[in-house]
């Protein structure tokens, strides 16, 4: 991709560090500075001289008012309310009964809800692990040759990321139909015994949903890693070759560390997509057959709006949010190490 | 060092994966263009686009698409306006509490819609706002604003101080400087942001699913999901509907693909 990506990514991934050490006028930050007086005076001087746009401004509050108001009303407040709801036993209509942490207990002990998280783990393998591994492997074997015409392939390989998930689900449902293209192909090559109603099959349903995630993620990973590896200086490989390093050593010593940034981006996008899977399950299987393809998001919807367990749904949603936060932080660590 | 066969192999890999990426898309497209098994056959001319017309009229996709356009335009307009303003303040002005507020909003990028939608639904219901455009639009504005504020702040921080100074010397106030100088200069960054917001909004499923009960408020993906519940998979009408739903995003993608790829890679936390 464009060379500027890495800066922007690291800006995003580690916001704390990207704060430039500008002195500004010292207001608000001055309390943290050891010699406050000097900082403030420098700030005052530069303000007097140049009137920089970084000077303290009350008008800033007006600028951030709409964004902040909308954010507080529609993100922060609902989040807090979810926490409140999660402590009650409520069917969405009558009056709620205080439940303490029972809903959270249910999330971790109830087989149906725990199962949803286990399914999410399986989906992570299909959405993230396989595409990333495949993308790394393919990109590493391809990267020796400078290739032209990559632009076209990039457009095509990235396409699955853009198409509405509901449309993807409709397309793949057709592929998995009992008389659909997948079974037709299997029968045509004499593998009739493998043909089955994929989404209705107890063992095949979850991997079938997962495979759609693999389809969505692989192209993304491939183009990310191709772009990352193209930036590695060839001299590194030549030096390694002189040292007698084999292809495997080369990969782990040079290639993999060089694309850590891309790896962290790819993992974040794909793992979060796996954890937040909803549309696909809703349209393709509705969690079935049985409970074979339920996922956390689907259970949030199901508990809150279909079976009237609002408290449980809220607790589940908050646990899911915590998992998303945690996973994002852990994966960003991978990218962070790259710059050390 | 690089042999011709190696290069051929590379292209073979790319072609193979491109075919895999395109197969479901082409399958839906060809299904949409083929005559419906149940349908009355029709002449050779009518079979091609007849399905689209029928999906638009009988399938009610015209209404779904209209709702989606209204929702997308509202969300993108409001979120862009709010994000540019907030990003401007966070990026170029110094004020008490700016860091705390900014990082709070940044955290919002990671909050999945699942965590909001339960509480939002029941609270909006108690004030009679469910099943309205407001309930579909505003939560998405909030989520887009979280990303947009982060995105625009990064742009305004990197914007040239000299240009801003020059504008001020010319007597432009902060409002004028923003809209007359910085926004036109930041067109690439803003385009990327708009394109992403459009894609997220157009593709959003959970929020309209929960908030809209009236059929007239169904967005395109929602309409498609319900449509598919009524018909068996593989019918040309369903496929035509799917093509219609995907078309706007795909067309924008084909024209502005660099913005999509750049934005999604740089804005990973969403």
From TrEMBL, chain A:
Q: Which Gene Ontology BP annotations are present?
A: transmembrane transport
Kindly indicate whether the keyword Membrane belongs to this entry.
Answer: yes
Q: Where are the transmembrane segments?
A: 60-80, 116-140, 152-172, 204-227, 263-284, 304-331
Q: Where is it localised?
A: Cell membrane
**CDD domains hit by this protein:** TM_PBP2 (cd06261)
Give positions of region: Disordered. 1-53
Q: Which SUPFAM superfamilies does its entry note?
A: MalF N-terminal region-like, MetI-like
Identification of the protein by name: Carbohydrate ABC transporter membrane protein 1 (CUT1 family)
What is the taxonomic lineage of the source species? Bacteria, Bacillati, Actinomycetota, Actinomycetes, Jiangellales
TrEMBL record, chain B:
GO BP terms? transmembrane transport
Organism encoding this protein: Haloactinopolyspora alba
List keywords of the entry alphabetically: Cell membrane, Membrane, Transmembrane, Transmembrane helix, Transport
Q: What is this protein called?
A: Carbohydrate ABC transporter membrane protein 2 (CUT1 family)
- UniProt cross-references to Gene3D superfamilies, sorted A to Z: MetI-like
- Annotated membrane topology: Multi-pass membrane protein
Similarity-based family? Belongs to the binding-protein-dependent transport system permease family.
ABC transmembrane type-1 domain location is 65-256
Which PANTHER family does its entry note? ABC TRANSPORTER PERMEASE PROTEIN MG189-RELATED, ABC TRANSPORTER PERMEASE PROTEIN MG189-RELATED-RELATED
What's one GO-annotated cellular component? plasma membrane
Its chief place of residence is membrane
One Pfam family from the record: BPD_transp_1
InterPro entries, alphabetized:
MetI-like, MetI-like_sf
Membrane-crossing residues? 12-33, 69-88, 100-122, 128-151, 189-211, 231-256
Q: Where in the cell is it found?
A: Cell membrane
Tell whether Cell membrane is among the UniProt keywords: yes
């Amino acid at each position: 991709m464009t060379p500027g990506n890495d800066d922007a990514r690291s800006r995003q991934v580690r916001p704390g560090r990207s704060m430039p050490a500008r002195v500004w006028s010292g207001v608000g930050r001055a309390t943290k500075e050891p010699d406050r007086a000097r900082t403030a005076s420098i700030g005052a001087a530069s303000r007097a001289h140049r009137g920089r746009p970084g000077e303290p401004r009350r008008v800033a509050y007006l600028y951030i008012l709409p964004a902040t108001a909308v954010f507080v009303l529609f993100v922060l407040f609902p989040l807090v309310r979810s926490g409140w709801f999660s402590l009650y036993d409520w069917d969405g209509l009558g009056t709620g009964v205080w439940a303490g942490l029972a809903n959270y207990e249910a999330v971790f002990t109830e087989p149906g809800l725990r199962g949803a998280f286990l399914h999410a783990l399986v989906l992570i393998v299909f959405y993230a692990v396989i595409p990333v591994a495949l993308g790394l492997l393919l990109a590493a074997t391809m990267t020796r040759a400078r290739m032209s015409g990559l632009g076209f392939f990039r457009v095509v390989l990235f396409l699955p990321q853009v198409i509405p998930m509901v449309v993807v689900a409709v397309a793949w449902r057709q592929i998995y139909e009992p008389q659909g293209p997948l079974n037709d192909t299997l029968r045509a090559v004499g593998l009739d015994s493998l043909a089955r109603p994929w989404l209705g099959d107890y063992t095949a349903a979850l991997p079938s949903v997962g495979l759609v995630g693999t389809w969505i993620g692989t192209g993304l990973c491939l183009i990310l890693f191709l772009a990352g590896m193209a930036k590695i200086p060839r001299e590194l490989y030549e030096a390694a070759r002189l040292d007698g390093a084999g292809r495997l050593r080369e990969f782990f010593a040079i290639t993999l560390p060089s694309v850590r940034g891309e790896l962290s981006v790819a993992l974040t996008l794909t793992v979060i997509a796996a954890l937040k899977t909803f549309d696909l399950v809703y349209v393709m299987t509705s969690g079935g057959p049985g409970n074979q393809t339920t996922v956390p998001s689907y259970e949030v919807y199901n508990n809150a709006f279909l079976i009237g367990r609002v408290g449980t749904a809220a607790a589940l949603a908050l646990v899911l949010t915590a998992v998303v936060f945690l996973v994002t932080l852990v994966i960003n660590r991978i990218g962070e190490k790259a710059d050390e | 060092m690089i042999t011709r066969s190696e290069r051929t192999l590379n292209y073979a890999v790319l072609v193979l994966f491109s075919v895999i990426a395109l197969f479901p898309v082409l399958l839906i497209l060809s299904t949409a263009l083929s005559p419906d098994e149940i349908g009355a056959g029709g002449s050779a001319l009518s079979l091609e686009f007849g399905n689209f017309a029928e999906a638009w009229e009988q399938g009610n996709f015209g209404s779904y698409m209209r709702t989606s356009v209204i929702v997308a335009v509202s969300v993108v307009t409001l979120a862009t306006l709010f994000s540019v303003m907030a990003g401007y303040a966070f990026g170029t002005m110094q004020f008490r509490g700016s860091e705390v507020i900014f990082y709070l909003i940044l955290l919002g990028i990671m909050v999945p819609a699942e965590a909001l939608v339960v509480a939002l639904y029941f609270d909006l219901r108690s004030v009679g706002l469910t099943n309205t455009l407001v309930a579909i639009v505003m939560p998405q504005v909030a989520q887009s604003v979280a990303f947009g504020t982060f995105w625009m702040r990064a742009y305004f921080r990197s914007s040239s101080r000299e240009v801003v100074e020059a504008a001020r010397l010319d007597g432009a106030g902060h409002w004028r400087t923003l809209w007359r100088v910085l926004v036109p200069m930041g067109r690439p960054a803003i385009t990327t942001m708009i394109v992403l917001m459009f894609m997220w909004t157009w593709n959003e499923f959970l929020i309209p699913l929960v908030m809209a009960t009236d059929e007239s408020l169904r967005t395109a993906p929602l309409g498609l999901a319900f449509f598919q519940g009524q018909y068996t998979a593989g019918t040309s009408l369903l496929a035509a509907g799917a093509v219609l739903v995907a078309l706007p995003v795909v067309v924008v993608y084909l024209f502005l693909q660099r913005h999509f790829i750049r934005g999604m890679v740089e804005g990973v936390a969403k």
